[in-house]
Specification:
This protein is an alpha+beta fold and about 290 residues long. The protein has 8 helices and 13 strands. The protein is globular and about 65 Å long.
Length: about 290
């Protein structure tokens, strides 16, 4: 591996990483890299041979105790030559001493287990156009909401309320990331509000394939359905994709009842006990790349 060097990712590298992820069929958001960069500016590593990028990984730190591995990709022409494992080791060293999570594709899960990761649940991507009256799809699907809650632009709410709500579903606070994730141009962020309380939050973002919805949080299936329908209105031809944790059976039942089809699966894995989050309200994870 003479000449192999590992360093931080540049802005041009971030665009290349997105391209590599698309080639793997992961369908990242068109502008995800801008939110990812503020989550942990030093958290994206690139391996180079002769100055040319050949592999990448993200090892993003959240708070003082949590980290997340993603974008672990080696260019096809250099696979099997040890470059990927060198980069993996560098990423894990960056997160040493923390609980580390990742979303592992099926063919890599055994390798992650050898590195000390254990499965907590599966995130199953469901895609399609939500049916107007699918199972669980009532209550709040109209323009103003329903069933006692209202669907509003998330930007109309105090950001500290959004950040506190997000914290219920994620192991650490991530305010800078959340601000960028919900506010980037081309995205739509909606919240369900009842009596001044946030009872749901969803973000839809443009992608090269189906528009991705994530996160999708809700206090009940009717709230999730209302948000999903409203978010789908901002997707080309209404086609959306949601990464649904199978640890929340209500979420799986909802998207199935709305006619969305499973297309992709990854295991949420951790190096220790899964962190305590409100799984009952987690209908769609934010990102398979950064948690």
């Amino acid at each position: 591996m003479t000449g192999f060097e590992i360093g931080g990712a540049s802005a041009a590298d971030m665009e290349l990483i997105r391209h590599w992820a698309e080639e793997e069929g992961w369908n990242p958001g068109d502008t995800d890299r801008f939110a990812f960069a503020v989550a942990d500016p030093a958290g994206f590593l690139v391996g180079r041979i002769g100055g040319e990028p050949v592999a990448c990984i993200s090892a993003v730190r959240y708070g003082s105790d949590f980290g997340f591995i993603g974008f672990y990709i080696a260019r096809p022409d250099v696979r099997g030559q040890g470059y990927g494992i060198r980069l993996w080791q560098a990423g894990m060293e960056r997160l040493d001493g923390r609980l580390v999570g990742l979303d592992g594709v099926v063919d890599q899960q055994d390798n992650y287990r050898k590195s000390g990761f254990r499965s907590a649940w599966n995130n199953v991507r469901h895609e399609g156009v939500p049916r107007p009256n699918g199972s669980g799809g009532g209550g709040g699907g109209g323009a103003g909401g329903g069933a006692g809650f209202e669907v509003v632009d998330a930007a109309s709410l105090p950001f500290e309320l959004l950040a506190a709500y997000d914290r219920r579903f994620f192991p650490e606070s991530r305010d800078a990331f959340l601000s960028a994730w919900t506010g980037l141009p081309g995205r739509t962020a909606l919240a369900a509000v009842r009596d001044g309380r946030i009872e749901g939050l969803g973000v839809v973002r443009p992608c090269s394939g189906a528009s991705r919805i994530g996160p999708l949080y809700a206090s009940a299936p009717a709230v999730a359905a209302a948000l999903l329908h409203r978010l789908a209105e901002h997707a080309p031809e209404g086609v959306v994709a949601v990464d649904v944790p199978d640890a929340n059976p209500s979420a799986t039942a909802l998207v199935t009842g709305l006619g969305l089809e499973p297309t992709f699966e990854a295991a949420r894995m951790y190096t220790g006990p899964a962190p305590e989050v409100e799984l009952a309200g987690l209908y769609g994870v934010t990102s398979l790349e950064l948690g």
